Amino acid sequence: MLETAGLTNIAGDIDMTWSSFGWESVVAADPDVIVLIDADWNTAASKIELLESNPATAALAAVQQHRYVVLPFPAGEAGVRTVSAATSVVAQLADLDLP
Questions:
Q1: What are the sequence ranges of the domains in the chain?
Q2: Are 92 and 86 in contact (CB under 8 A)?
Q3: Are 85 and 61 contacting, i.e. CB atoms less than 8 angstroms apart?
């Protein structure tokens, strides 16, 4: 889905699912955009609050520029929602001030 939208996943070289991926790797990658999955039990708003309050992640370009793409939890899984999720990512990217 990310590749379809023209994005590169900073964790894309990890072959295993549910692998450990530390904040140090996110900070080192300094992504242009952060894709957040919005779930009832872990909302995008709570994730943004965490990103913006942590000194390490608050320095990321995407956080400083509020470049977030938000998808509902069901859209994060491959399936019937994949096309609409990719379309949503593209539309949200168009609204962001990307370098």
A1: 23-94
A2: no
A3: no
Taking Cα atoms as reference points, which of 4, 30, 33, 29 lies closest to residue 14?
Answer: 29
* pLDDT per residue of the chain (99 residues) written in tens, 0 to 9: 788 888 888 988 888 777 788 889 999 999 999 999 999 999 999 999 999 999 999 999 999 999 999 999 988 777 777 888 889 999 999 999 787
Would you report the helix, strand and coil content of the chain in percent, each value rounded to 5?
A: 40, 10, 45
The model's pTM is 0.86
* 23-94: CATH topology: Rossmann fold (3.40.50)
DSSP, collapsed to helix, strand or coil, labels residue 39 as strand
CA dihedral 22, 27, 33, 37 (to 10 degrees): 30
The two structure tokens encoding residue 66: 């509020």
